[in-house]
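A reminder from the course coordinator: this example appears on the midterm review sheet, so study it carefully.

Given structure:
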C-alpha cells in the first residue's frame, strides 16, 4: 500500500502518524522480560547460596547437570533448523495453501447485481535475513522447551543419559551387541550386564534417531501439503512413504528393548522388511517424480516386480512364522515363552527391582518372639486414634497437627506428631511472614499405653526445639511460606522468641527491592527499617530436599523424627528417605502382569534440622557401578550412615509399595515363583490385603529388638483369604535385609493360616466382641501380626470416640487377640482396664509387672548407644568402683534415670581415657544383687590389675 486510511473518515496519512504506542508496547515487553530475567537470576542465586551454606551442595550443578542441560538443549534444537538458506517447508506449504484461493474461479456470482472482487494472493518469499530470523526464533523457542524438559517433551531426560555417557558409564563397544539382541537375546546375566549400555549409549542413539524421525516426518508432511496443492507429480507419494519410513525406522530401532519370546527374530525380520519396502518405494517415487505424471503402467519394470515379489515373500515368511508360533504357544509354553522370556524376566526384573537378594524361608522359621519383650511393645493405639487424642494436646489456636509418624527410640515405640501452622488470618502478610515463624509443639504418644510423654523424654534431649522447618498439610501452606527474621523492630515472633540460627539468605539493596516488589510489599522494597533482611527460605522439608534431587531420585511419602542424642547431641531432625525409581526400557525388566519396569533401590536419607534447616545426607551401602554410583557423584558431601543414626532408620514404605504405588514387594509378589507350571497357573502369586499395608513394628529376634517393616500377604484371589506369608524388611543395623516367611496351602502343621482379612472377619463374627461393640460403639483399628513364643497372633485394638465440647476423646476399651494358626480357636477379648492386658490372655506367658518394663527400658538405654549387654555376674576383680545409684520405681523418675544411665555410658563405658578403648569381653554385664535392684558394670584391665566400674538401678519388685 502506498498510503491511505486505516478506517473511513481518517484524514491523517499513515506516514505522518506518531508511532509512540508501538514503542511503548515494545518498551513494556522489554521491561517485563528484564524483570523476569532478574527474578530468575535472584531465585537461582538464593538457591545456590542457601544449599551451598546449609547442605554443602551445588544447587545449579545438580539442577542443570553442571550446565549440560543447556548444551544438550542447544544441540537438540539444531535438528529443527532448516540447513538450506532461504528454504522453509512451513513457508512453502503456507504459500501453497494461499495459492488455492488464486486458482479458484475469479467470480463467485452476483451479490446486489455486482461481481465479487478477488484479491491476488501475496506469496511469502523469505529473504536471507527473514529466513535467518525465523530459524533463530525457532531455535530459541525449542531451546527453552528442551532446557525445561532436559530433552524432547515426552521422550525422557536426555541430559542425564548424556552425562552418564560422558562420565564413563556403559560402553559404546557393546552397542552392536545390544542392536543384535533380537537375533541373539543372550542369557539373563548377559542382559543385566548390557542394561547400562542399553540405557545410556544405545538410548542416546535411539533418542536422537527418534527426534530426527519426528523432524523428517514433520517436514515431509509439510512437503506433502505443498506437493498435493501445487500438483507436483508423484512427489506427494514420495512424501507419504518417506514419512512412513521414518515411522518404521522408529519402530525398528526400538526392537532391542522389546520383551523377546521365540518369535522375536521373525518380528525383527517383518519390521525390517517393511522398513526396506517403504524406503525403496520412497526412493522410486523420488527418482521418478521429474515428470508431471507418470502412468503406473510405465513404472512397472521387471526389476521392480522381482524386488516387490522378494519383499512380499520375506514379509509373508516372517508373519507366517509369528502366526505359527502364536497359535502353538499354549502347547509349547516352556520352549516358546518360559525359556526365552519369562525365566529371564524373573532374574532381570528381580535385579532391576532390587529384590535379587531376598531371603526365602518357611513361616515355620519366623523368629520365636520372646513374650517378655514382645508383649510390652504391642501397639494398642493406631495412627488414627493417636491423631484424635493428640489434637487435645495442642493447647493453642495457631497450630494444627500433621500426620503422625511411627518411631522407635530408646527401646520404646511412639507416635510422633509434629505441628504446623493454622493461621488466624492467612491473608495477613505480616502474620504469615513475620509473626508465625515457627511451631513450638511436638506431640509424642506411647503406642502401647496411650500415654503422652514429653519430646525431651522420648528423644533424650534437654529442651524441646522450636521448629522453623517442618512438614505441611497437603493444600495448606505453612512452612512453605518464607519468613523474614529481625525484619522489623515493631513486630515480634510468636512466643516472644527471636530466631538465633543462621539465615538461609540475606536480601540487601537491589535484591531486597526486587524480591519484595514481586510480593507488592513496597515498604520493605524501598523503605525498610534495615537495608538487609534475613530470610528463611523453602522451609517445608519435602520441598527443601526435592530441590536438590535429580531425575530418578524420589522422596518417600512420609517422614519421621530422629535425634543425635545417642552421639551426645541435642538436635531433632526430619528424616527424608530418598530412593531410586528410574524407568528402564528393556522388556526383560518388566514384571509380568504389572506396569513395573523400573530400577529401584534405597539410596539414602537426608536429615533436616527442625530448628536451623541445616541439611545432611547419608547414602546407604551398596553400589552397582550404574545408577547408584552415578548419583553419588552429585552428592559428594553425603557420607556413610553414622552409628547413632543407623539404629533409628527404617526402610521406605513407598519403595516397598502400597495401595497407591507399585514397589519392590509388588514385584516379588510375582517374581518369587520360579517354576513354570506354578507361574503359569498363578496359584502362588500374592496380593496386598486392602486393610493392611506396610506397617512398622518392633520385631523381636532372640533378645534383640529391631524396628522392621512388615507386609502381610494373601494368596491372589483366595476365597478363604489365607495368609500366604509375611515380608520382614529390617531397619536399624540390618537396614534393607529382606525376608519372606512363606506359607503354603497347608500352612503350619497342615493348618491354613488366617490372613488379615480373615482375622478382621473373625473380629466381626465373634459374639463377645460384638456385644462389646454394641455396648461401647467401638470400631476396629490396625491389624498387626506378632510372633509370641513361637505362635502367630493377630492383635486388633478397638476404639471409641466421644465428643465433649470442642474436644474429641478416643478410648481403647479392649483388644481382640486372634490365633492366626487356628481358625476354630476362640477370639480373646481383652479389656484394657483389667490385669489380663499384661498377658493379653496368653496364659503360657509370664505376667508382666511394672518393674519388668522398667528393667527393659534401662536395658534399652544401653543398646540404643550400641553397647552390648550380657546377663552375667562379675567375680574375681581386684578393684570395684560403684559409680552411683539411682531409683526408678515410678514413671516420674524416668527422666532422672535416663540422664543417670546415659552419663554412665558416655562418661565411663565409652570414655577411652578410662577404658583404653577396650573393655573386658567387649560387653557391659548386668546382674541382680538383690530383688528389685540391677547392677550394670564393665571390667578393664591395666598392668595385671582388673577393675570393675558399675552402677545400681533399683526398679522395684512390683
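Designed residues:
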Amino acid at each position: 500500500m502506498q498510503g491511505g486510511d486505516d478506517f473511513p473518515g481518517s484524514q491523517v496519512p499513515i506516514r505522518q502518524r506518531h508511532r509512540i504506542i508501538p514503542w511503548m508496547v515494545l518498551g513494556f515487553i522489554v521491561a517485563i522480560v528484564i524483570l523476569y530475567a532478574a527474578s530468575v537470576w535472584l531465585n537461582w542465586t538464593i538457591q545456590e547460596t542457601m544449599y551451598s551454606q546449609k547442605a554443602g551442595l551445588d544447587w545449579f550443578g545438580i539442577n542443570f547437570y553442571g550446565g549440560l542441560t543447556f548444551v544438550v538443549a542447544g544441540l537438540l534444537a539444531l535438528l529443527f533448523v532448516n540447513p538450506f538458506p532461504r528454504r522453509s517447508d512451513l513457508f512453502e506449504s503456507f504459500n501453497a495453501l494461499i495459492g488455492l484461493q488464486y486458482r479458484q474461479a475469479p467470480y463467485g456470482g452476483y451479490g446486489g447485481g455486482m461481481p465479487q472482487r478477488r484479491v491476488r494472493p501475496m506469496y511469502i518469499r523469505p529473504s536471507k535475513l527473514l529466513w535467518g530470523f525465523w530459524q533463530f526464533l525457532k531455535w530459541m523457542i525449542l531451546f527453552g522447551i528442551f532446557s525445561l524438559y532436559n530433552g524432547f517433551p515426552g521422550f525422557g531426560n536426555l541430559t542425564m543419559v548424556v552425562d552418564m555417557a560422558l562420565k564413563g558409564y556403559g560402553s559404546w563397544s557393546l552397542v552392536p551387541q545390544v542392536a543384535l539382541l533380537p537375533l541373539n537375546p543372550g542369557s539373563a546375566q548377559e542382559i543385566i550386564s548390557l542394561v547400562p549400555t542399553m540405557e545410556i549409549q544405545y538410548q542416546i542413539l535411539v533418542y536422537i534417531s527418534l527426534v530426527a524421525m519426528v523432524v523428517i516426518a514433520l517436514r515431509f508432511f509439510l512437503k506433502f501439503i505443498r506437493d498435493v496443492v501445487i500438483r507436483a507429480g508423484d512427489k506427494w507419494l514420495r512424501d507419504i512413504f518417506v514419512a512412513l519410513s521414518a515411522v518404521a525406522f522408529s519402530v525398528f530401532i526400538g526392537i532391542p528393548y522389546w520383551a523377546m519370546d521365540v518369535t522375536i527374530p521373525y518380528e525383527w525380520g517383518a519390521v525390517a522388511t517393511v522398513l526396506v519396502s517403504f524406503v525403496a518405494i520412497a526412493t522410486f517415487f523420488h527418482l521418478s517424480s521429474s515428470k508431471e505424471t507418470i502412468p503406473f503402467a510405465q513404472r512397472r519394470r521387471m526389476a521392480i516386480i522381482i524386488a516387490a515379489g522378494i519383499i512380499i515373500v520375506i514379509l509373508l515368511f516372517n508373519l507366517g512364522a509369528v502366526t505359527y508360533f502364536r497359535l502353538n504357544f499354549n502347547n509349547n509354553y516352556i520352549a516358546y515363552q518360559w525359556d526365552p522370556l519369562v525365566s529371564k524376566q524373573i532374574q532381570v526384573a528381580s535385579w532391576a527391582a532390587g529384590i535379587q537378594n531376598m531371603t526365602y524361608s518357611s513361616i515355620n522359621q519366623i523368629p520365636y518372639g520372646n513374650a517378655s519383650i514382645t508383649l510390652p511393645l504391642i501397639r494398642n493405639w493406631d495412627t488414627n486414634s493417636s491423631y484424635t487424642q493428640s489434637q487435645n494436646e495442642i493447647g493453642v489456636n495457631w497450630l494444627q497437627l500433621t500426620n503422625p509418624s511411627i518411631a522407635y527410640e530408646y527401646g520404646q515405640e511412639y507416635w510422633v506428631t509434629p505441628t504446623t501452622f493454622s493461621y488466624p488470618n492467612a491473608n495477613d502478610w505480616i502474620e504469615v511472614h513475620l509473626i508465625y515463624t515457627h511451631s513450638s509443639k511436638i506431640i509424642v504418644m506411647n503406642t502401647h499405653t496411650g500415654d503422652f510423654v514429653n519430646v525431651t523424654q522420648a528423644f533424650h534431649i534437654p529442651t524441646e526445639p522450636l521448629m522453623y522447618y517442618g512438614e505441611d498439610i497437603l493444600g495448606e501452606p505453612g512452612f512453605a511460606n518464607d519468613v523474614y527474621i529481625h525484619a522489623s523492630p515493631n513486630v515480634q515472633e510468636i512466643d516472644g522468641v527471636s530466631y538465633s540460627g543462621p539465615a538461609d539468605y540475606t536480601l540487601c539493596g537491589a535484591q531486597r527491592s526486587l524480591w519484595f516488589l514481586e510480593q507488592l510489599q513496597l515498604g520493605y522494597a524501598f523503605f525498610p527499617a534495615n537495608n538487609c533482611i534475613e530470610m528463611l527460605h523453602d522451609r517445608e522439608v519435602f520441598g527443601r530436599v526435592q530441590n536438590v534431587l535429580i531425575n530418578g531420585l524420589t522422596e518417600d511419602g512420609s517422614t519421621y523424627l530422629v535425634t543425635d542424642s545417642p552421639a551426645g547431641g541435642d538436635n531433632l531432625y526430619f528424616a527424608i528417605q530418598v530412593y531410586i525409581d528410574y524407568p528402564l526400557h528393556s522388556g526383560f525388566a518388566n514384571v509380568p502382569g504389572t506396569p513395573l519396569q523400573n530400577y529401584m533401590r534405597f539410596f539414602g536419607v537426608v536429615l533436616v534440622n527442625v530448628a536451623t534447616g541445616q541439611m545432611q545426607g547419608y547414602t546407604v551401602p551398596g553400589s552397582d557401578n550404574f545408577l547408584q554410583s552415578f548419583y553419588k557423584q552429585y552428592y559428594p558431601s553425603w557420607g556413610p550412615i553414622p552409628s547413632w543414626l543407623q539404629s533409628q532408620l527404617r526402610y521406605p514404605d513407598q519403595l516397598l509399595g502400597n495401595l497407591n504405588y507399585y514397589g519392590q514387594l509388588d514385584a516379588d509378589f510375582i517374581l518369587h515363583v520360579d517354576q513354570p507350571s506354578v507361574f503359569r497357573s498363578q496359584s502362588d502369586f500374592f496380593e496386598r490385603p486392602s486393610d493392611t499395608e506396610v506397617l512398622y513394628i518392633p520385631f523381636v529376634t532372640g533378645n534383640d529388638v529391631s524396628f522392621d517393616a512388615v507386609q502381610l500377604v494373601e494368596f491372589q484371589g483366595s476365597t478363604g483369604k489365607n495368609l500366604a506369608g509375611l515380608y520382614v524388611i529390617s531397619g536399624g543395623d540390618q537396614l534393607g535385609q529382606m525376608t519372606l516367611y512363606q506359607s503354603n496351602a497347608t500352612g503350619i502343621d497342615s493348618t491354613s493360616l488366617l490372613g488379615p482379612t480373615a482375622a478382621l472377619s473373625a473380629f466381626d463374627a465373634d459374639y463377645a466382641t460384638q456385644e462389646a461393640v454394641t455396648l461401647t460403639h467401638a470400631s476396629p483399628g490396625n491389624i498387626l501380626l506378632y510372633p509370641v513364643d513361637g505362635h502367630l497372633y493377630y492383635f486388633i485394638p478397638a476404639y471409641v470416640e466421644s465428643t465433649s465440647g470442642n474436644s474429641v476423646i478416643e478410648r481403647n476399651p479392649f483388644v481382640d487377640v486372634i490365633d492366626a494358626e487356628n481358625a476354630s480357636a476362640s477370639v480373646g477379648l481383652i479389656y484394657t482396664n483389667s490385669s489380663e492386658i499384661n498377658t493379653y490372655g496368653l496364659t503360657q506367658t509370664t505376667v508382666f509387672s511394672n518393674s519388668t518394663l522398667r528393667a527393659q527400658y534401662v536395658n534399652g538405654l544401653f543398646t540404643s548407644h550400641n553397647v552390648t549387654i550380657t546377663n552375667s555376674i562379675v567375680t574375681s576383680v581386684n578393684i570395684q568402683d560403684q559409680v552411683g545409684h539411682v531409683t526408678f520405681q515410678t514413671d516420674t523418675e524416668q527422666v532422672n534415670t535416663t540422664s543417670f544411665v546415659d552419663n554412665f555410658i558416655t562418661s565411663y563405658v565409652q570414655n577411652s581415657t578410662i577404658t583404653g578403648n577396650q573393655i573386658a569381653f567387649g560387653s557391659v554385664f548386668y546382674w541382680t544383687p538383690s530383688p528389685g535392684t540391677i547392677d550394670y558394670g564393665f571390667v578393664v584391665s591395666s598392668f595385671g590389675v582388673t577393675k570393675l566400674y558399675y552402677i545400681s538401678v533399683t526398679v522395684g519388685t512390683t
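Residues 1-12, 103-112, 116-122, 292-299 have pLDDT under 50 and may be disordered. The two ends are 107 Å apart (CA to CA).
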